Amino acid sequence: MAERIVLGIESSCDETGVGLVRLDASGRVELLADAVASSVDQHARFGGVVPEIASRAHLEAMVPTMRRALDDSGLRLSDVDGVAVTAGPGLAGALMVGVAAAKSYAAALDVPLYGVNHLAGHVAVDTLEHGPLPERCLALLVSGGHSQLLLVEGVAKSLTQIGSTIDDAAGEAYDKVARLLELPYPGGPPIDKHAERGDPSAIDFPRGLTGPRDSRHDFSFSGVKTAVARWVEQARREDRAVPVNDVCASFQEAVADVLTAKAVRAAQDHEIDTLVISGGVAANSRLSALAAERCEAAGITLRVPRPRLCTDNGAMIAALGAHVVAAEGKPSPLTLGADPGLPV
Ligand code: KG4
Ligand code: ZN
């Protein structure tokens, strides 16, 4: 197969991402550009993403972000051989901006369009950093919107969800706990920082869905969030100073413990020897340290893309598009629509 340049467009949440990759004749995918514009600052005072604000921000950022990706790569639009775009899951209005842009570029350039799944993109991005994935691997996706365990048998071919959260996503729990501790949004980075100086065993917060009769591969994070809220309320009622560092470290330990224990167990249940962790929460220092420790003990190879690639971006969509091209997947029609609830 001849070399191909694939453009990727991401707009499912609050990041406008445009990425460019090169697919070479041997099927390897190389990162050429990864431009991202975030509207996170505009959502901060609301403590979470406001869909209307996100959609408008995508509209404003799409063309400048495209220009930046082209400038960074030294390519021209006419070099592009295919356009991949996140078709879902995500916020309806936000997705529509990316899908409309991708359709316009594909039509104007007369190249194939590939509507792809955002969750698969979070897995595919790891090939930009660590090379081809083995035939079978397990992916733990943890972000503000998702907490899932996926069995991956070819990232462009077959992804099967074997577990997911039954309530809050892991990142959502971080954001809500940060809010009640009066820490800034998004909550992951400040909690991670405070946790460094706290004692992870100071408070024994609950580990959701880890009882003997509970679902083996599903998650629940609303219990730990409520437990933190109760603990903090009680301390405030009793006029005790809230030990923010200890609360953060203990909460972080509970989340990392459950995520890594369940990921390792799922890998063992499915006889899989490679685990990929991706999504914004993969940047968490305790999660990656504990995952490394437990994977090593279980003989599992751990792959975590660098934080910049873990959060939403266009390069992950371009990478997945390139894998679809390499697998000779079918292009999407120009009638492609956004699907907010797109399953894997
Ligand atoms: O993947 P992402 O950028 O966006 C989506 O939600 O799709 O993930 C954002 C989430 C937020 O909830 C944020 O609090 C969390 O990732 N996050 C972290 C860390 N950095 C970001 N959570 C824990 N520790 C971190 N260091
Ligand atoms: Zn995401």
TrEMBL record:
It is found in: Cytoplasm. It is an enzyme of class 2 (transferase). Substrate binds at L141, V142, S143, G144, G145, D175, G188, D192, N284. Its main location: cytoplasm. The keyword Transferase applies. GO terms for biological process: tRNA threonylcarbamoyladenosine modification. GO terms for cellular component: cytoplasm. It catalyses: L-threonylcarbamoyladenylate + adenosine(37) in tRNA = N(6)-L-threonylcarbamoyladenosine(37) in tRNA + AMP + H(+). Fe cation binds at H118, H122, D312. InterPro entries: ATPase_NBD (IPR043129), Gcp-like_dom (IPR000905), KAE1/TsaD (IPR017861), Peptidase_M22_CS (IPR017860), TsaD (IPR022450). It comes from the Bacteria. Belongs to the KAE1 / TsaD family. HAMAP family: TsaD. This is tRNA N6-adenosine threonylcarbamoyltransferase. It comes from Allosaccharopolyspora coralli. The gene is tsaD.
